[in-house]
Amino acid sequence: MSIVVPKYLNESERLLRMLAGSIISQAVYAVTQLRIPDLLAEGPRTCQELASLTQTEASMLYRTMRFLCDEDIFRETDEQTFELGPLGPFLRSDTPDSLYAHALMYGQPWHSQPAGHFLESLTKGVSAFEASYGMNVFSYLAKHPEAELIFQDSMSAYSRSIIPAVLAAYDFSQFDTVVDIGGGHGILMEQLLTSCTHTKGIVFDQPAVIDSAKQYIKSLGLEARCDCMGGNFFESVPQGGEAYVMKHIIHDWSDEESISILSNCRSAMKEDGKLLLLEVVLASGNEAHFGKLLDMEMLAMSTGKERTQAEYERLLQQSGFRLNRIVPTSTHVSIIEGVPN
Ligand SMILES: C[S@@+](CC[C@H](N)C(=O)[O-])C[C@H]1O[C@@H](n2cnc3c(N)ncnc32)[C@H](O)[C@@H]1O
After folding, report:
1. Residue with CA nearest ligand 1 atom 12
2. φ/ψ (deg, to 5) at 84
């Protein structure tokens, strides 16, 4: 089933729809938080029934769901009766490729408010998050455990949808020890150790995050093959690994900050080690690419950016590596392989 921008819109309506983007995002957040996609998993329900199950005001819920039919999230099958549309299943909490946790994160004030500081960000040359909260997003999350949990859940869910393609595209079983720098709650490591049964792992992340990773790895019975270590990658990273993997880390940071993280990996790794960055690689021309949206998110939330192959080549070269090859996956994420220079 193909998804299209509603055809009924003329140019000025398309622009108005763009201007109302935050309302669309908040409407998606509201129905997801109410778990309406889960409630429609088994088939259509009336709006009255949904309102009573979610303790919401029926006529307001109806208007919200009617609008989200235009966005392909729901479909009105009968008068005031809805089923899931083509995008609806992705907002269920229980599917492998679920964006449920993502929708919850996008609705949080700390995620949506920085966009209101975009202009200030452009004029001052700092991220909108920094302009809004006076600190970088990771310092904010470390101080707000509830927000940290929502962020990590969202990253884990996103990772679950990407990692199978990464493991299919690259042979990680060639390594004895893989270190996942900024590994969050350990989802990548879980899947990697499950598919490469002779490999050992280390998950490294901030002290505020690593306890949850420890618990998660232990709950899977993988603790004998995986250490979880807390620290700051601007100071040092665990020594002696064969492969240093970073998924969606370098895009969070400026060139200067990235060089500091990468140089620490270079000092810690074995001479025949490999650096593996799991990132979007932007095309150098001006063709449309999903990565440009992620780049805007980086602009709003961090000092980082999405980069082209030439930019990654330069970054690696300035950190003691040579870009060996870029392995595409079936997703928008590629594996950028660096080797010591
Ligand atoms: C965008 S998330 C990526 C998480 C994970 N790699 C994934 O793709 O799901 C960035 C991660 O970097 C971690 N991080 C941020 N600053 C750090 C620091 N100074 N030292 C170690 N980890 C850090 C965060 O806690 C977070 O888990």
Report:
1. 182
2. -75, 135
- Report CA(183)–ligand 1 centroid distance (Å): 6
Q: What are phi and psi of 282, to 5 degrees?
A: -70, 145
pLDDT in tens, 272-318: 999 999 999 998 888 888 899 999 999 999 999 999 999 999 999 99
What lies within 8 Å, CB to CB, of 246 at 6+ separation is: 180, 181, 182, 261, 265, 275, 276, 277, 278
Asked whether the domain spanning 162-340 has the same topology as the one spanning 11-100, the reply is: no
Cα–Cα dist 87/99, whole Å? 10
Annotation says 185 is catalytic: no
Tens of pLDDT, residues 79-135: 999 999 999 999 999 987 889 999 999 999 999 999 888 899 899 999 999 999 999
Nearest CA to ligand 1 atom 27: 184
From the CA of 66, how far away is ligand 1's center (Å)? 38
Catalytic residue among 102, 111, 248, 251: 251
* Ligand 1 atom with least separation from CA of 148: 25
Residue 160 has a CB neighbour count (10 Å cut-off) of: 17
Structural domain spans, the chain: 11-100, 162-340
* Whole-structure pTM value: 0.92
CATH code linked to domain 11-100: 1.10.10.10
The Cα 249–Cα 138 span in angstroms is: 12
| Homologous superfamily assigned to 162-340 | Vaccinia Virus protein VP39 (3.40.50.150)
Q: Write the single-letter amino acid at 174.
A: Q
User: Which residues are registered as beta bridge partners of 82?
Assistant: 45, 76
Evaluate whether ipTM surpasses 0.90: yes
Alpha helices for the chain (secondary structure H): 11-19, 21-33, 36-39, 47-54, 58-70, 100-106, 109-112, 118-124, 128-133, 137-143, 145-169, 187-195, 207-219, 255-268, 291-301, 309-317
In sequence order, what are the beta bridge partners of 327?
335
